[in-house]
Amino acid sequence: MALSYRWLAPLVLLLATASTSADTTAQNLAKYHRLRQRLVTEFTVVGPGQGESQPAPERMDAIGLMKWGDGTIALGFYLGVLASEHYLLANPARFPGADGGNAGRLAATRSELYHALLALERLDEVADAAFEGCTT
Question: How much is the pTM?
Answer without folding.
Answer: 0.75
